[in-house]
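Q: A reviewer asked whether we had any structural model of the full assembly, not just the individual parts. We don't, so I'm hoping you can provide one. Inputs are below.
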Amino acid sequence: MGRARVMGSVDEAVAGIEDGSTVLVGGFGLAGMPFGLVDGLIRQGAKDLTIVSNNAGNGDVGLAALLAAGQVRKVICSFPRQADSYVFDELYRAGKVELELVPQGNLAERMRAAGAGIGAFYCPTAVGTPLAEGKETREIDGRAYVLEYPIKAEYALVSAHRADTLGNLVYRKTARNFGPVMAAAARTTIVQVAEVVPAGALDPEAVVTPSIYVDRIVVAR
Amino acid sequence: MTAEHAGRGPLAADELAAVIARDIPPGSYVNLGIGQPTKIADHLPDSGDGPPPVILHTENGMLGMGPAAHGGDIDPDLTNAGKVPVTELPGAAYFHHADSFAMMRGGHLDVCVLGAYQVSARGDLANWHTGEPGAIPAVGGAMDLAIGARDVYVMMTLFTPEGDSKLVAECTYPLTGVACVSRAYTDHAVFDIRPGGVRVLETWGITLAELRDRVPVPLGG
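A: Here is a predicted structure for the entire assembly that you could use as a starting point for your response.
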């Protein structure tokens, strides 16, 4: 909404996230995980959150710490179970957190659809599997597809490498992962970066996320 | 005509990886699933200083993935689908998750190689969930790869520790994809799976006649 603002602190950047919000959290494992913003959300204390992220936390940091703090009602992700996902595992087995399992490409495309104003889309992934049960299917040109709906969110927490003061973003290597898709899908996109540079200092040909998708920027680790 | 190598034991995992690498045409774009299939990369043709003959895709947003990174080469922003630090080769490219999965779904990947619990005679794949009560399901990119790549190869042992064939008439585990596998590479044999039936291309440590006794699927020679 309007121009992005460069915030003075992580706590200012995550201020106002309401209880019950859907929050998209970038990262694939630890790469691209916005640790500073997630720690800020733990201090901020919003509860009853729906978290959308590829994984459901590793070790005791990032999303795992948010889960451990009891702030999460539901996780929408593709790959919760990992060698070090013990925080999620315990909460899930105790019935304290709900899981919606989504194939990874559907997770990305459903957020992309939200950002692009698409009402729903037919996707061939998961046809004939338990993850398509109860969903509308349709044959198009001889192939079966499943109807998938967008994942919209109030907030996205994203980690990028560098922002300019307008909010244009560049990423680093595979830490880009879900960042650009989530930035477009959320009503308010909050981005942590290693560095903020003056507008004009990023090569416009190399900008990955244009500033229009970004609302708040903060330097954090 | 089946090539039988009965005067030796079944293939070790590295030997099986080499057999699969041999069958991947130079010029291919290839995704290697997490677990055993990552071993195939060690047997692909060497790239020298130029771009690699086979370009590896990793679902978390990269083409031109190189070998695992060690020591000072480890960069937390550069990992593979298994979250292992990797390197980049000349001509590498990074992209976000929606693009990465569009590459799969859009039929742009030539080959993917996945692990499996079971493969059926018509090429159904089960590799994401045992369906056991209490197991936490995780799917990641398996369903997207299964229906996306032009050729889906499976790499697995042919028999369970109990001696049951994993090539089956119908999968009993929950499906990952329907009629998607074109080849099953196993330690005992390579199976070519076509709409007309399953053919055995090569065997190790077992004859075609013995295979027909132990695998509950009609096998052409």
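A: Points you may want to mention in the reply: Chain A has one domain: 5-219. The two ends of chain A are 25 Å apart (CA to CA).
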